[in-house]
Specification:
Shape: globular
Order of helices and strands: HHEHHEEEEHEHEHEEEEHEHEHEEEHHH
Strand order of the largest sheet: 12-11-13-10-14
Oligomer: single chain
Strand content: 15-25%
Largest sheet: 5 strands, mixed
Number of strands: 16
Number of helices: 13
Structural class: alpha/beta
Radius of gyration: 19 Å
Helix content: 25-40%
């Protein structure tokens, strides 16, 4: 294979045929290197956590500040950290459909991206330099149940810290800040989050924070919820929907691969990404916050900036502010 063809395959990312994507996922399961294994979809026979009404969940977090969601850093080993060490590998929930954030490298078939770099840093801190990670790919709606059922140790999946979610799971300090924007085809008359959306079909990932945003917008848009933002992209390319509502960070990755699309309108809100964990795993939450302290440190040479410049700067541009500052609940 020539260098040019490899570069072209990387540029396309995971937006080839859907069949090719699933074939790559299955190939990775069967032939994964010791340092990384990939699984996809729900575990057969796995228990499901009962859904709680949104009002009940919000009521259980009476004073909520998403920027101060987690406890202060500490590397004292507790039950959760010991459980990972005894198992011998970290189990991380990710989204392998998010180009630049988490997707399969077309040459190595290994997970790669900004979120993947952070997962590996967490694993090395707990398990040492030769740490093994089992990556579990899942749609947004499965994130909280899988944490509650202890099917994964951490979820690093562009997951926003919200007061409602804090009733069900724990979060680290913020590791990235973004917000929702609209993605439309070139030539669309949709220019933003306004009356032109009335009667238009807007696609979003089921279980994502975009759902409440669109339903409360008063624009009269028709909500179309499906499994993932990549499925929304396919629907948009086939003109089955008129727009996709997703985080600007994820949308930028899609635009980088499909120049027939464009982002319109300003950022609609502020979304704060955190590493999600089981609410009872306080020692792991403190450990991850300690990892993030190191990950942010070093200015332009920090691991956070190195990863940002590698994966995101070519599309999102330079990031002069650097990583978001840490803040804690205690």
């Amino acid at each position: 294979m020539t260098a040019g063809s490899r570069a072209e395959r990387r540029r396309r990312g995971p937006l080839g045929s859907r069949l090719a994507l699933w074939l790559m996922l299955m190939a990775t399961v069967l032939a994964a290197a010791p340092a990384a294994a990939v699984t996809a979809g729900p575990s057969e026979g796995a228990p499901r956590a009962a859904a709680r009404p949104a009002a009940d969940r919000a009521a259980r977090v009476p004073s909520c500040d998403p920027r101060r969601a987690g406890p202060r850093p500490d590397r004292v080993d507790g039950e959760a950290v010991r459980r990972i060490r005894e198992r011998g590998h970290l189990v991380a929930g990710v989204d392998l459909n998010s180009y630049l954030w988490a997707s399969l490298d077309q040459d190595t078939q290994e997970p790669s991206g900004f979120d993947i770099d952070l997962v590996r840093a967490i694993a090395r801190d707990i398990l040492g330099p030769k740490a093994t990670v089992r990556f579990v790919s899942m749609p947004p709606a499965q994130r909280i149940p899988r944490l509650q059922n202890r099917q994964v140790d951490v979820i690093v999946r562009t997951m926003s810290i919200t007061c409602e979610r804090l009733a069900d799971v724990a979060f680290s300090s913020v590791y990235f800040e973004t917000g929702h924007r609209l993605l439309v085809p070139q030539g669309s008359d949709i220019t933003g989050f306004d009356s032109k959306l009335r009667g238009r079909r807007v696609c979003l990932s089921k279980g994502s924070s975009a759902s409440d945003l669109l339903k409360s917008s008063g624009t009269g848009a028709v909500t179309v919820e499906i499994a993932s933002h990549l499925d929304c992209l396919v629907e948009l390319q086939q003109r089955n929907v008129d727009a996709v509502l997703t985080h600007a960070t994820l949308a930028a990755g899609l635009v980088a691969q499909d120049p027939t699309l464009r982002l319109v309108g300003p950022r609609l809100d502020t979304s704060l990404y955190g590493v999600a964990m089981n609410k009872d795993d306080t020692d792991l939450v403190r450990r991850v916050n300690a990892v993030l302290e190191d990950y942010r440190a070093g200015g332009a040479d920090s691991p956070w900036m190195v990863s940002y410049n590698k994966w995101l700067a070519p599309t999102l541009g330079a990031h002069p502010q650097g990583p978001p500052p840490a803040a804690y609940a205690d």
